[in-house]
Amino acid sequence: MKIAFIGEAVSGFGGMETVIRDVITTFRQQHIYSEMFFFCRNDKMDKGWLEGIKYSCSFSNIRLGFLRRAKHIHALSKWLQDYQPDVVICIDVISCLYAAKARKKSGIDVPVFSWPHFSLDHKKHAEYITCADYHLAISSGIKQHNQ
């Protein structure tokens, strides 16, 4: 099985990175292959936590949101065609939108899961979580929001 984790670039210093790294390590021990794909504005993300994890990045500092999204969706659709994952897990809400659009553009029939690590109550673009087919909740608050 091949799992794709996708999301916006993260700082590299937080608990979310630790959880993702631990999950990927656990999967690897069970012979489940995982890769990550990040949407980045620059190359300032601390990548130390990614040691031993295969990852790709789409870089765009385009200021116009719809053009930046189009570039990221195009890059992700090409990556999906190359990687051919069995499952896509989005680590933030905007990635749910990108994954749904890239899946359609690439013609890859793959289930998309959301795995938000923050409350959606005050999150910008929280509605994009509905673009995912399934939802993994790490708290009861996130679970209630998705029902």
**Average pLDDT figure:** 89
Order of helices and strands: EHEEHEHEEH
Low-pLDDT regions: none
Level-1 CATH class name: Alpha Beta
Spatial ordering of strands, largest sheet: 3-2-1-4-5-6
The helix count comes to: 4
The description of the largest β-sheet is: 6 strands, parallel
CATH topology: Rossmann fold
The counted number of beta strands is 6
Under CATH, the homologous superfamily reads Glycogen Phosphorylase B
How much helical structure, as a percent, in the residues? Answer: 25-40%
Straight-line N-to-C gap? 28 Å
Oligomeric form? single chain
CATH architectural arrangement: 3-Layer(aba) Sandwich
- Classify the secondary structure makeup into a structural class: alpha/beta
Coarse morphology: globular
- Portion of residues in beta strands equals 15-25%
Organism: Escherichia coli
Domain Glycosyltransferase subfamily 4-like N-terminal: 13-122
Protein name: Glycosyltransferase subfamily 4-like N-terminal domain-containing protein
Pfam families: Glyco_transf_4
Task: Explain what the structure shows.
With 147 residues, the protein is an alpha/beta fold. It contains four helices and six strands; from the N terminus they run E-H-E-E-H-E-H-E-E-H. The chain has a six-stranded parallel β-sheet with strand order 3-2-1-4-5-6, with helices on both faces. Helix 2 (65-83) crosses helix 3 (93-106). The mean pLDDT is 89. GO terms for molecular function: glycosyltransferase activity. This is Glycosyltransferase subfamily 4-like N-terminal domain-containing protein.
